[in-house]
């Protein structure tokens, strides 16, 4: 399953980031931002009408990604063995300001 296919508030674990070409700069940047194997991700919000961008949380950090970028991140269902305290939630995450389109 791809990160771009997750619904709002869905949580998953990163399996890998797919390179679309040798030395793919976008995939490399996603890995640098924390989209690495075993890391938990959650879709916080989606754009209007289910479009771009997706607001995705990795740990306590949130990123706005285009669906085509999120499609490079392959995910699997969240592990049931992970303790609930390790999961970042909106209540424990720092506030994020999101600008709305005019």
Structure notes:
The protein has 102 residues and is of the alpha+beta class. It is built from 2 helices and 5 strands. The chain has helices at 25-32, 67-70, and strands at 11-17, 40-46, 54-58, 61-65, 73-77. Strands 4-3-2-1-5 form a 5-stranded antiparallel β-sheet. The protein starts with 10 loop residues before the first strand and ends in a 25-residue tail after the last strand. Mean pLDDT is 84; it is low at 80-87.
Strand arrangement, major sheet: 4-3-2-1-5
Tally of individual domains = 1
SSE order, one letter for each helix or strand: EHEEEHE
Radius of gyration: 13 Å
What's the number of helices? 2
* Helix-strand category: alpha+beta
The separation of the N and C termini measures 33 Å
Examine the coordinates and then state which fold CATH places here, giving the name of the CATH topology: SH3 type barrels
What is the CATH C-level name? Mainly Beta
Query: Which homologous superfamily in CATH is the superfamily?
Result: Ferrous iron transport protein A (FeoA)
What would you call the quaternary organization?
single chain
- pLDDT < 50 runs, ≥5 residues: 80-87
Number of strands: 5
Helical content stands at 10-25%
- Characterize the overall form: globular
Largest sheet: 5 strands, antiparallel
Organism: Ralstonia thomasii
Keywords: Iron
Protein name: Ferrous iron transporter FeoA-like domain-containing protein
GO molecular function, one term: transition metal ion binding
């Amino acid at each position: 399953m791809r990160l771009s296919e997750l619904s709002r508030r869905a949580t998953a674990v990163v399996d890998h980031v797919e390179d679309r070409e040798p030395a793919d700069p976008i995939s490399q940047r996603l890995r640098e931002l924390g989209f690495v194997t075993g890391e938990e991700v959650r879709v916080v919000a989606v754009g209007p009408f289910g479009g771009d961008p997706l607001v995705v949380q990795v740990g306590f950090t949130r990123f706005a990604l285009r669906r085509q970028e999120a499609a490079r991140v392959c995910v699997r269902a969240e592990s049931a063995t992970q303790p609930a305290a390790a999961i970042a939630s909106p209540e424990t995450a720092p506030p994020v300001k999101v600008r709305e389109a005019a």
